[in-house]
Amino acid sequence: MYDVCIIGSGVVGSAIARELSKYQVRVALVERAEDVTQGASKANSGIVHGGYSAKNGTLKAELCAIGNRMYDDWQNELHFGLRRCGSLVVAFDDQDLEALGRLYENGAKNGARGLKILSAAEVRSIEPNSSAQIKGALHCSTAGVTSPYELTIALAENAVRNGVALMLNHEVTAIETANHFTVRAGNTAIEAEFVINAAGVRSDQVARMVNAADFEITPRKGEYILFERGYGGLVNTVVFQTPTKNGKGILVTSTYHGNLMIGPNAEEVSDRDDAGTAEESLKEIIATARKSVPVFDLSKVITNFSGLRPTSTRKDFIIEESSVPRFINVAGIDSPGLTSSPAIALRVLEILKSAGLVLRAKSAFQSLRRGIIIPKSLEPAELKRRVELSEGPERIVCRCEQVSEAEILDAMGRGIPIETTDAVKRRTRAGMGQCQGQFCRPRVKALLARELGRPVEEIHVRRDERATEGRPGRAFFQRLAAAERAPDISPERRRQTVGGHGGD
Question: How many helices (H) does the chain have, and how many strands (E)?
Answer without folding.
Answer: 14, 22
